[in-house]
Every structure is written in C-alpha cells, then in structure tokens.
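Lab notebook, bench 4. Still working through the backlog of constructs that have no structural model yet. Next entry is a single chain of 207 residues. Request: give me the structure tokens for it.
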Amino acid sequence: MTEQQARDEMVRLGASFFQRGYATGSAGNLSLLLEDGTLLATPTGSCLGELQADRLSRVTLQGEWLSGDKPSKEISFHRAIYLNKPACRAIVHLHSLYLTALSCLQGLDTRNCIRPFTPYVVMRVGDVPVVPYYRPGDARLGEDLARLAPDYNAYLLANHGPVVTGSSLREAANNTEELEETARLIFTLGDRPIRYLTEEEVAELRP
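Model written out:
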C-alpha cells in the first residue's frame, strides 16, 4: 500500500466509525505504520468524520513531528505499542459507547475484562487486559501499554476506552468492532445467566 492509499484508507475508516456512531466529536485517534517506518496518525482535536488526507500527522517512532497537522498527545502510547510489538501495523483508539461503559465498571478482571462467551473475541484478539486509569496524555499510559504490548492485541483503558491493534488498519478496525459488539452483548444480557465457554472450548480457539 502506498502512503497515499494509507492516507485515503484512514480518512475512509475514520468517516465510517463516525457515521456509524463508534466515534463522536473529536474523541479517539487512529494510527498506522508506513513502509518507511514512520507513523501516520490523526491530528490533535480532529473529528474522525472530517479527516483530510493531506493534513494527517506524520511522526517518527521516536516522536518527532515530521509533517501534517500537530499529532494527538495520545500518539505517545501508540508509539509505545509499536516499539514493543513488532507485528503491530495499526492502532485504533475509540471512546465507543459500550466498551467505554465497560471500562467504567468496578470489579473487572484486570487480566482479561471480557470472559469469553462467544468465540469471536478469542479468535480475533484473545485476552483483553485493563490498564489502570490515568489522565489522558499521562506518560504512565505508554509505560503500561509498553509492558503489555508483547503479549496482547487489545487493551481496555479504565474509565477511558479501548486500544486495539492489527496487522493493518482494516484489521484493527474489524477487531475494534468485534470488541464493541461483544461489550454491547454484555450490557444486553445484563444479569441473565450466561453460558460461558469452557477452558477447553477457549483453548480450541486460540492460535
């Protein structure tokens, strides 16, 4: 994929997230790793529904702003993941309704906040650990994500929202949507008894 194609895809997927209600206002950010090893990311304060391909931020993995509009302050935790997870080529961070609601609940299993009850989250992303609450932009977000990055594909920031990786921006987007729909199911089921997958069933789904 050329850089222009990557820019166009980011604009297209951002608009899709916004139009379908996964993103609101200027919340959330996207990034992807270009062929030259630099990052393309959504600018600070930008609305995912109104991105412009030629104004997207381009930064190095060390944080140097190269071109485009000023990058989001949250690009720091994106960089922490890329630097510690070589297979990661793209990241989606949203404040989507159901995953953000889930992130606000007390008593979540911090090792895996979504106990498997359908096969799809297991197949797409595996376990989803919870990162403690920090103020947006706090350096500790990056530190915690750097530590978790080698072993996980998605993370839930407490009282904040999901961070989801992929081998491409499309895959990261698909993984994010699967997580959001699973969180929606959790709230839809409420306090009804849930038939969770057994350890053996989960083991069959893992790569």
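Notes after review: The first strand starts at residue 29 and ends at 33. DSSP finds seven helices and eight strands in the chain. Flag for follow-up if needed.
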